[in-house]
Amino acid sequence: MSDKFSVIGKRQTKLDAPLKATGRSQFTDDVVLPGMLHGKIVRSNIPRGKILNIDTSKAEKLPGVMAVITHKDSGGVMVGPDQQLLCDDMVHYIGDEVAAVAAVDGDTAYEAAELIKVEYEPMPALLSIEEATAPDAPILKQYYEDNYADDLNLNYGDVDKAFSESDHVREDEFISYPSHNCFAELHGVLADYSLPGKLTIWTPNQTAILIQKGMARNLGISESNVRVCSLNTGGAFSGRGTVRPHHLIAALLSKKASRPVKIIATSDEEFIICRSGGKNRLTLKSGVTNNGTLKVIKADHLYDCGAYVETQFIMPTIVGATLQMLFKVEAFRYKGQLVYTNNAPYFFHHGGGLVPSQFAFGQHLYLIAQDLGMDPVDFKLKNAFDKGETTLNDTHYASCGLKECIKKAARKSGWNRKYGKLPPYKGIGIGCGVMSSGGKGMFQHDTSAAFLKIAEDGKLSLFTGLPDMGQGSHTTMAIIAAETLGIAADDITVISGDTDIAPYDVGAFAQRGTFTTGNAVKIASLDAKKQIAKTASEKLGVKPASLIFRDRKVYPKGAPDKAISFEDVVFDTLNCMEGRFIMGRGFYNTPTTKAALAYSFGAQIAEVEVDPETGIVKLLKMTVAHDVGRAINPLAVEGQMDGQVFSGMGQTLFEECFMEGGQILNQSRIDYKLPRPYEVPEMEHIIVETNDPYGPYGAKEVGEGPIACNPHAIAMAVSNAIGYTMKELPLTPERVLQAIRKKNRIS
Amino acid sequence: MKRILSLKVNGNSYEVAINPWQTLLDVLRNELGLIGTKKGCDIGTCGVCTVIMDGKAILSCLTLAIECEGHTISTIEGIGTAESLHPVQKSFIENGAVQCGYCTPGIVMTAKALLDENPKPDDDEIKDALSGTFCRCTGHIKIMEAVKKVSQPEDEEKSNV
Ligand code: FES
Ligand code: FES
Description:
The structure holds two protein chains of two kinds. Chain A is an alpha+beta fold. Chain A has three domains: 37-123 and 187-264, Aldehyde Oxidoreductase, domain 3 (Alpha-Beta Complex); 362-437 and 598-746, Aldehyde oxidase/xanthine dehydrogenase, molybdopterin binding domain (Aldehyde Oxidoreductase, domain 4, 2-Layer Sandwich); 442-589, Aldehyde Oxidoreductase, domain 4, CATH 3.30.365. Helix content of chain A is 29%, strand content 26%. In chain A, a hairpin with a 2-residue loop joins strand 30 and strand 31. By secondary structure, chain B is an alpha+beta fold. Chain B has two domains: 3-78, Ubiquitin-like (UB roll); 87-152, DNA polymerase, domain 1. Chain B starts with a strand and ends with a helix. The complex binds FE2/S2 (inorganic) cluster (2 copies). One FE2/S2 (inorganic) cluster (FES) sits between chains B (98-104, 135-138) and A (184, 235, 470).
C-alpha cells in the first residue's frame, strides 16, 4: 500500500475491543432498570388448531405476577399483515404466541406462564411444501385461494429462443433443509412503557430505525414516541432487522404493569423465535454452447416460509437477482413462490438466505462443466462479468474484480496442480459470488446521515445511526473520518445506537454500511474540514484548497515544516471572536434506482477431505479472494472473510433443524451441530482492490459477499472428492455416505 | 428459603442471600453486578459463561452458587482492565479475535485457564481446551491465532524458524 493514505489500509484494531475483552461492554441483558419485571411468553404447543379457551385466572392470582396479557389486551396489534400479536381464535405453528406474563422475577414469571391453561381443538397441519401445495390441501389463511403466500416472476430476453439455440441443456433439482442462525446473544428485549407517551426499548438489532418504525406502526403510536437503544449486539447476520413479537409483547406488558419488562429467550425458545431457513426446492435449467458459453438460465423456486410472512418476500428478490448477476446470459426466467405451512415462520440465516441458492447454482454449473468436459475455473472465467458491463436486470458494474478474484484464488491454491489430480476422497472446488453494497428497494431511498463535532482537544465525536454488531463498522467509520481529517482513528468516539440522538440511517443490512454510511461520514468530515481549513488558511496565509491534513497536523502542500497541529487549529476555531463551532454534516442516498451503485465479487477455493467410512467432511483449506473495492481496515476485512467461511461451512456441511410434526427436534447448540474450534480450516486471504468510483475511498462491501461464494466451493469440493455431485443441503455425513453408496452402485 | 453465601471473587469477599437453586452465573451477574460474564444459553452448550474456579475453567451456568463457598473464583473483570490488560486480552484485541464480543469473556477465561496450566500448548491442545466454546462471528480462526501468539510470541516464533 502506498502512503497515499495515512489511516486507511492499516490493520486497525477495533476501537471497542478493549471494552469487550475486559467484560465492560453492555448488551441488552446487562441493563437493569429500577422496578424491572421479567416477562415470559406462553406459546402454542400444537402446529394448527382452534383456541377454545384461555384461562389466566390462576396465573393472575400468583403472588408476584404484575401483568397477564392475551389477545384481549393486544387488541388489533399485528406483527405483520397476516400475523396477530397474540392469537385469538387460531394458532398456526408450534411456538405461536398466545399469552404473556410479567412478574417480579424470572422464576415467578415461568410459574405463572405454566399456570395459564389454553384449550385447543387441533386441526390437520400442513408441514411441508408438498403437503401445502397438494391440490386438495386445506387453505391455511383466510382470504387466500391457495397456500402460496407470495410470488415473484422475472423474465429477461427470449428464454425459449436461447434454449433452442443452445447445444446442451441441463436441468437439476436441489433441496435444502432449514437451519438456524444461533446467535451468541439470545433474543431479548427490555421495554419501558411505564410513562405514557414514550416507549423506550433496548434490544440487539442491526437497524434501530426499522425497529423504531416497526414498533410505532404496530402499536399505532407516533415514531417520535419510540426510542430504541441498541448497545452492543451479539451477532445479527441478517436476522435482527425487524420487529418481532417479543418486542411488542414486552411493550404491552410494560404498559399494563406500568413497569419496565425484560424478556430474554431461553435456549430452546431461541429456535422458535428465529428459525432461520425454511426448506427450499430450486430447479435450475440452463443452456450452453459446446464451447462453454452460458446462454440461458431458468429457475423455479419453492420456499417454505412457515406460518407467517415476515421478511421472506425479500428472499425471491435476492435469489432471482443474484442468479443472473454473476455470469453473463442472454435470457433469464425466474419464478419464486413462498408457500405457507404450519412450520415456524422462516427468518434469515447468515447470508440473507443465499447459501441454499448459491449451493444449488454452484452444483448445477459444476455438472454443466463436467458435461462439457471443461475445467470449472475456465468455465467460470469464460462467463464471468467484467467491469463496465451491465446485467440483464440493468445493473451496471462500475468496478468488477470477479475475474481477478478467480485467477488469483486459482493461482494461490495451486488449482491446476490439484483439480482432477487429487487422491480419492480428497477434493477441490471453486465458488463465486456477487453482492450489492446497498439495499434500495426496502425504501424508496437508501439513506445514511452522519454528523460530527470536534472538542478543544482535537478529539472528535461521530454520530451515526449505523449499529455495530461485531462487523467493526464503528471502527470503519472512524477510519474514514480520521483519513479525511488527517487524525487517528482512536481520536474518534463513535456515538450510535440511540434513536433519540443518532441521525437517520437505514441500518446495517444489505451490506450498505461501508458504502452508504461511509459516504455520509466522508461528506460530514469534509464539511468539518472546510470549517477548520478556514482558520488554518488564515493562520498559514494560504488558500484552503492547498492545505494538507495529515498525522494530526495541517500544513501547506509541499511545506510540512510549516505544520500547525490539528488540535491548535481546532482550538483557535472554537475560541475565535466569532466563536465558531465545528459541526460536520453528511448525508448520502445512493443516486440510483437499482439496489445499489457498487457490487463486490469474490471467488473461493475449498480443499476438503472426506472420510469414506463415516461420511465426515473436513474443510482443510479455504483460499478466499474478495473484491472489496478498497480495504479500509484489512484486519476487519479478514475477520469478515473468516466468519463467513466458517458460517458458510456450517450451513453447507452441518447445520440443519430436524423437523417432526412441526416441532424442531434439536433445539440446542449441542443437538444442532455447528462448527467449533475442531473445524477451523487453514485460511488464505486475498484482498482485491478495484477502487470503486462511487465508494468512499473506493470501498465496497465485505459483509456478506464472501458467504455467497463458499457453499458453492465447499459442495463442489466434496462432490469432486467422492465423484458424485450432491443435490441436497447440508452435506451431512449421512448424505455424504449415501452419495458415496450411490456412486459405487453406478460405477 | 434463602441462605447466606460467602463468595470469594477476584480477590474480594462477598456475602449474599441466595436461593439454593441459583447458579453461579446468576449470582455473579444479578447479585454481585459482575455482568462481564455473559449468559449464552444457561444450559451448558456454549461456553459463554466460563469463569475460573481454583484454576480450572468452569461453566458458571451449570454450577450452583452454593457449591462455590470456600473456592477461589475469577471472572473476566478480575484478570485485567482496559488500562492494564492481561496478555490474553491484549492478544485477542491485537489479533482481531473480538467481533461482537459476546463470546469473548468466556473464551478469554477458557484460554487463560489453559495457558496458566500449560503455557506452551500445541494446536491440538488449544483446540481441545477451546472445544466447548462457540463463536459465531470470527469462525474461531483469529481466536486460535490470538491464543497461539500469547504462548509463542512473535520474536520467539522467528527465532524458532
Ligand atoms: S451460558 Fe453457560 S454454557 Fe452457555
Ligand atoms: S465475537 Fe461474536 S460470537 Fe464470538
